[in-house]
Amino acid sequence: MIIKPKVRGFVCVTAHPEGCAAHVQEWIDYVKAQPSIQGGPKKVLVIGSSTGYGLASRLSLAFGARAATLGVFFERPSEEGRPATPGWYNTIAFTKAARADGLYARNIMGDAFSDEIKAQTIDAIKADLGQVDLVVYSLASPRRTHPKTGAVHKSCLKPLGAPYTNKTVDTDKGIVSSITIEPADEAEVADTVAVMGGEDWELWIDALRAAGVLAPGAQSLAYSYIGPEVTWPIYQNGTIGMAKNDLSRAAKAIDAKLSPSGGRAFISVNKALVTQASSAIPVVPLYISILYKVMKAAGLHEGCIEQMHRLFATQVYNGHTPTFDEAGRVRIDDLEMRPEIQAAVAALWPTITTENLESETDIAGYRTEFLKLFGFGLNGVNYDAETEPHIPLI
Ligand SMILES: NC(=O)c1ccc[n+]([C@@H]2O[C@H](COP(=O)([O-])OP(=O)(O)OC[C@H]3O[C@@H](n4cnc5c(N)ncnc54)[C@H](O)[C@@H]3O)[C@@H](O)[C@H]2O)c1
């Protein structure tokens, strides 16, 4: 099958297996070029391990600290005439490379919100690892079937209280327009908290503890975002922000459970980056396009792999302990939030139009990164050649 990108709105419905493998290899090469992480975890469970920050976490710790990794994710396999989703191919590429390097890597494909996948994961830990010393929780999902009630909760990205109007960009067509988003009702807030809040993270930790598969001193972390005021109505003060507040609540509750044995749980606030999850948020892709322009010009740009490697190498391991902000979070978004970076973004924001989008923002870099998520635009891959889309998971 010859596979080309097919972009529909904020998703690409195709993915290229060799391109995804080349993308994973770029990340491995980055990690291998850094000094190794000392005192890192030996056995790591990553929930949401196939793309974005979760994949970058898994890969940093495998190749940077030689950790054994167990990954949990939910991806769609290939079908007749249709490639699999990128995380499927990423996971195969990661696993092959890790095993070739003598590293343990095992994968569990299925709904992490379910009791069944939690049980399968615990069985895998018992069989192969005994216990894990780090649990990374990096799920981003549009829906969750609640394991106890069976209710299906759908998350939404809406402001609270009043409609929110701002600029947004159609990243595919390059059109800057004004968007008004109506506020969420109470049920939508509750649903978004049910999907993206902390309850499932707590259920995971409770299940792992009850099964005795958390090592003494085990740590757990989850990821959040704050960003600039221009995005607050839709992010920090919107439905997703309420879910992230609940994630912070869960971090404290989990921390209280892990700290008696010398462990800890905390949230890392990460930089805004192009991922499948962030491309779906109104306004944010325009912000990212401007931010990339400003951060690249300042020599401060980082992608997922640089962010996660820096998190583990400078905040968690290598003899470091985390530096927490006033709310107890690690701020690996520190470079994004520097006053001079935010001032430059804020100055550009009102001036951006469809006409100057290409010259004044890094929309080109946004598009390149977006296509890379699906394995397109990687050096050394022949996109005109036949490629095998049906690859079994390993
Ligand atoms: N992208 C950003 O700009 C950004 C910034 C800061 C924080 N974050 C946070 O980082 C975390 C990860 O987001 P991302 O951007 O890397 O997202 P992503 O879409 O790249 O990755 C999501 C992962 O979750 C997995 N997943 C989704 N539903 C699942 C399910 N039901 N069962 C099992 N696995 C499932 C996917 O397979 C994938 O591995 C989120 O908490 C997000 O809010 C993202």
From TrEMBL:
Record-linked Pfam families: Eno-Rase_FAD_bd, Eno-Rase_NADH_b, Enoyl_reductase
Keyword NAD: yes
Catalytic residues, chain numbering: 235
Record-marked site positions (Plays an important role in discriminating NADH against NADPH): 75
EC number(s) stated in the UniProt entry for this protein: 1.3.1.9
Alphabetical UniProt keywords: Fatty acid biosynthesis, Fatty acid metabolism, Lipid biosynthesis, Lipid metabolism, NAD, Oxidoreductase
UniProt record similarity statement: Belongs to the TER reductase family.
HAMAP family from the UniProt entry: FabV_reductase
Protein's name in the database: Enoyl-[acyl-carrier-protein] reductase [NADH]
Annotated organism of origin: Cephaloticoccus capnophilus
Gene: fabV
